[in-house]
Structure formats: C-alpha cells, structure tokens
Specification:
With about 200 residues, the protein is of the alpha+beta class. The protein is built from 2 helices and 13 strands; from the N terminus they run H-E-E-H-E-E-E-E-E-E-E-E-E-E-E. The protein folds into 2 domains: about 55 residues; about 140 residues, Immunoglobulin-like.
C-alpha cells in the first residue's frame, strides 16, 4: 500500500494512520455517541417518571383508588340508560344496596351476608333512581369505626355505583356500609359478617 492509502486526516484535523486505526476511531465514535444517547434517554425516562408521580399525587383519592392497597377503598360508576322502569314512581330512592364478591356486566354477581376471610375483597353495589345532580356517599364502618368513605356524583336518572374494600384476614366481625346523601341523611344501610374461612 502506498503512503496515501495509509495516512489520512479526519475532518477535525486529527491524523489517522492505517485502516485499522480508522476503524478503531469510528468504533469509538459510535460507542461514544451510543453512550451519550443512552444517558439522554435515561434522563428523559427519569423526568417522565417524576412527572407521572407528580400527576398521580395530585389526583383525588377516588380517582386512583381503582388499585387499592390493603386499607384503601375502590370505586366504580356505571351510567344508566335513563329508561323508566314500570315500578319507577319518580321519587329519589336506592333500589338496590348489597354486598357482593364481584361486579359483572354492571351488576352484582351475588348477595353476601357472610364472607370467609379467605376472600380479600368485597364490593358494595348501589342502584340509584331519580337522584340526578345529587351527591351520594358510601361510608364503610367496621365494628362501629369508620374505615373510609367514597363520594359519587349522580349524573343520570338511573345511576349504578359501587365501592370496594380490601380486607385483612384478622378483620373479623361486622362490616356496614351506609348510603348517605349530601346532607348525611341515611338512604340505606347494609351489613355483612367477615368470618373465619372454612
């Protein structure tokens, strides 16, 4: 090989001797670029995580209670179809208030009076009629002590809502949910017994 092929200059003026050194320089340049890009992506990822955390902390409790911890309440709302039912007399009322082990197709799957402590979550389902524009509250109590409350804004003539409670196996005894209006008047009350599993 001639001298011209073995020696050359990079654009920035540094001298490169031979193709091996040129290949080494290019590989080093690519690695440096990759390292710089990876650092940039890490910084973006950390920034995104911080923004997400700040947004989560700024949300009201009922908005992020969908994935409750052991002592948090969860909540759900199903918009009604607005159709009158034959038994609807137009008066505001709670048509159904019940504990259940699951909500399926916007309805409770069962009616719970006793629940074994192998089950770790219970739902309280409420079917409301003619209460549009009002606030309804589920207040959970355990042996007379308030354990949590969830507020719902009723936005339709028929409005179905539910809240849920994560239970610890040691929380045996009577659990009650009272359905209250904005003036804290009791609209309905139901209880179930949490007991040792079989």
């Amino acid at each position: 090989m001639g001298q011209r092929e073995q020696r050359g200059r990079r654009r920035d003026g540094a001298q490169v001797i031979g193709s091996e050194r040129a290949a080494h320089f290019e590989a080093g340049s690519t690695a440096a670029h990759t390292t710089t890009r990876a650092a940039h992506l890490r910084r973006r990822s950390v920034a995104s995580a911080l923004i997400g955390l700040l947004l989560a902390l700024s949300m009201p409790a009922t908005a992020w209670a969908q994935t409750p911890t052991e002592d948090e309440l969860g909540a759900g709302v199903v918009e009604g179809n607005g159709a009158d039912t034959p038994e609807d007399d137009g008066l505001p009322k709670v048509v159904l208030a019940t504990f259940t082990t699951e909500i399926s197709d916007r309805e409770p799957v069962d009616d719970v009076s006793f629940l074994g402590n192998e089950k770790r979550v219970v739902y309280f389902f409420t079917d409301l009629r003619n209460m549009e524009g009002q606030t309804v509250r589920h207040v959970w109590t355990y042996q007379g002590n308030e354990m949590g409350r969830v507020d719902f804004e009723v936005k339709g003539k028929r409005w179905r809502v539910w809240s849920s409670k994560q239970l610890l196996p040691a929380w045996l005894g009577t659990w009650t949910v009272s359905v209250l209006n904005a003036e804290d008047e009791v609209l309905a009350t139901e209880s179930f017994t949490y007991q040792e599993g079989e």
